[in-house]
Amino acid sequence: MSTNKPTGSKDDPSYVRVTNLPDPDLAFSMQATAHAKGFIYNGTITPGIAEKYKSEGNSFCMRNLNTGDSDWDVPLSAQETNRITGPSSKHGYGLALMPVYNLDVSKIPASNDAASVIATQVLDKLSAALIPIGTTVWLQLLSSENGAKSDQIRNIEHQIFQSGYSVGILGDEVQQQQQTNGRVLESTYTPFEDASNGTSVRSISIGDNTGANPIYWAIQ
User: Fold this and answer.
1) CA 194, CA 114: separation in Å to the nearest integer?
2) Is 185 exposed, middle or buried (0-12, 13-18, 19+ CB in 10 A)?
3) Whole-angstrom distance, CA of residue 78 vs CA of residue 153
4) Is the separation of the CB atoms in 78 and 109 below 8 Å?
5) What's residue 197's pLDDT?
């Protein structure tokens, strides 16, 4: 009588263990700390800049995925994501990170597929910058045509949301953030303070961050 050895055990050479643990060398999405203080920066974050703002009590930063009107704007790269979110033991800055996408509403075409094209551009930049699924992506709306193109903005938000990210909106004044895609994003920020080298810094703080759909940031 022959006996068939069961497969799928640890003794079986074909056995492969599958886990859902994050790669220790890549950023992963994590719920943001309530009342955390941070800053928004439109240039590459160097060790000196990171140390300065960490010493002032900041635990996270927000970086732009694309360039705006400023010649000083530098888009976020995968290398910078790893440096920002990496622990100091690995020569990182030990800061949490959330991305910002500058969206000039006045330049959104009237075509039906405009929202899909823009959402795809945002998603491509998130992928290139190694921003993990689940992280809150902030849209910085530029121009005064927001109301006239609100449907297109909502479609852009929806498509980004459907791809696994939460979406927040940054306005032009200090304000409590509005409800976006059914997700209440509790955050406030202050206007840009222009620096002498052309870069700009804004301070931002997270609110209670409670509810079913809180803000998430990227960290290692």
Assistant:
1) 33
2) buried
3) 26
4) no
5) 53
Per-residue tokens: 72: 């000083």
Calculate ∠ Cα 209-135-213, nearest 5°: 40
pLDDT at 183: 39
Q: What angle do CA 141, 143, 147 make, to 5 degrees?
A: 75
For residue 3, the Cα-to-chain-centroid distance in whole angstroms is 55
pLDDT of residue 125: 96
pTM over 0.70: yes
Q: What is the pLDDT of residue 145?
A: 62
Q: Compute the distance between CA of residue 95 and CA of residue 220 in angstroms, rounded to an integer.
A: 9
Residues 124 and 118: their CA atoms lie apart, in Å, by 10
Cα distance between residue 184 and residue 177, in whole Å: 8
Of 145, 160, 162, 56, residue with least CA distance to 108: 145
Kindly report the length of the chain.
220
Strands of the chain, DSSP E: 28-31, 37-41, 60-64, 96-104, 136-142, 166-170, 179-180, 183-184, 187-189, 193-194, 200-206, 216-219
How many angstroms separate the CA atoms of 200 and 192, rounded?
Answer: 6
Q: Using CB atoms within 10 A of its CB, is residue 107 exposed (0-12), middle (13-18) or buried (19+)?
A: exposed
Q: Which two tokens stand for residue 212?
A: 């079913």
